[in-house]
């Protein structure tokens, strides 16, 4: 079986989150879709999987609402559903930055199409910042990008305010997986007085989809938040797997390490694994095999 995986988001005022949650949950259940849709007063953020016809029907349903009429989605395929069930949830933010002044509906950085991205980030005056978390950056990033070494998106503003200065760094370019985090991060930077702020339109996924590998400045794989774990150029499945113990992506090299035990530990978490934790993980691993 091959399923279509669609990711989409939009920053727009949503005042009826509860009613929209109910209608979308019913629609997705009827279409046998799986995945997660987040709703907040600031918009919608989703990754769902299903048949091509079902995905099309969901997007048509959303676009019939004037607020989502211009909604765009990114597509890939998987051999099976990357998600276990369908959840439509209401949150305070569709991507959590914790900075109320960061409002992409009011102001946002300059969008750069994938075809133009190489030119922008090759400018020596541009500071290129990876807006993702440390474990994501570690398996792949753009050549020359700065890693803020954050554990969550909420930590990024602290890094930006302590390491960047509008006077010393007049040009800043940012990127993330699908573009949503950069919408907020560039809005935040503009509020801090930065003048030239750019971000990759459609995120890394759109770049990997559209830019031919021989011309690419991307190095490694891109972490994705589903059971595919990582993708490569052309959005082909990557080589990484997920450590069930700590949630870190593990490479082929990690899986050859003596500290790697499938479902129990990996080189990233082995040092923190007490005998009790290892026994608990071993039991969970056994239960997974019985399912």
Radius of gyration: 20 Å
CATH top level of the largest domain is Alpha Beta
Number of domains: 3
The shape, in one word, is globular
Mean pLDDT: 92
DSSP strand (E) fraction?
Answer: 15-25%
- Helical percent range? 25-40%
User: What's the CATH H-level homologous superfamily of the largest domain?
Assistant: Rhodanese-like domain
Helix/strand structural class: alpha/beta
Instruction: Tell me the distance between the termini.
Output: 20 Å
Low confidence ranges: none
List the total number of helices.
Answer: 9
From the 3D coordinates, which CATH architecture of the largest domain would you assign? 3-Layer(aba) Sandwich
Number of beta strands:
15
Spatial order of strands in the largest sheet: 4-1-3-2-5
By CATH, the topology of the largest domain is Oxidized Rhodanese, domain 1
> What is the quaternary state of this protein?
single chain
- Tell me about the biggest sheet? 5 strands, mixed
In N-to-C order, the SSE pattern is: EHEEHEEEHEHEHEHEHEEEEEHH
């Amino acid at each position: 079986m091959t399923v279509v995986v669609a990711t989409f988001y939009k920053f727009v005022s949503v005042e009826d989150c509860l009613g929209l949650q109910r209608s979308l949950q019913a629609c997705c259940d009827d279409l046998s879709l799986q995945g997660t849709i987040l709703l907040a007063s600031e918009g919608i953020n989703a990754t769902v999987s299903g048949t091509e016809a079902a995905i099309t029907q969901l997007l048509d349903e959303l676009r019939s609402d004037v607020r989502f009429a211009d909604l765009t989605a990114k597509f890939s395929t998987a051999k099976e559903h990357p998600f276990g069930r369908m959840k439509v949830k209401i949150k305070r933010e569709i991507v959590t930055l914790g900075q109320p002044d960061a409002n992409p509906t009011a102001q946002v950085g300059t969008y750069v199409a994938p075809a133009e991205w190489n030119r922008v980030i090759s400018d020596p005056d541009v500071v290129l910042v990876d807006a993702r978390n440390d474990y994501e950056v570690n398996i792949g990033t753009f050549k020359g990008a700065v890693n803020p070494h954050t554990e969550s998106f909420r930590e990024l503003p602290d890094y930006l305010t302590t390491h960047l200065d509008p006077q010393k760094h007049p040009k800043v370019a940012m990127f993330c997986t699908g573009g949503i985090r950069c919408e907020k991060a560039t809005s935040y930077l503009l509020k801090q007085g930065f003048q030239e702020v750019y971000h990759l339109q459609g995120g890394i996924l759109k770049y990997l989809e559209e830019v031919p590998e021989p011309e690419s400045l991307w190095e490694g794989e891109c972490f994705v938040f589903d059971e595919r774990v990582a993708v490569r150029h052309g959005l082909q499945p990557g080589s990484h797997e997920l450590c069930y113990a700590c949630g870190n992506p593990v490479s082929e090299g990690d899986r050859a390490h003596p500290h790697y035990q499938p479902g129990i530990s990996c080189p990233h978490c082995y040092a923190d694994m007490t005998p009790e934790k290892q026994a608990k993980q071993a039991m969970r691993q056994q239960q997974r095999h019985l399912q």
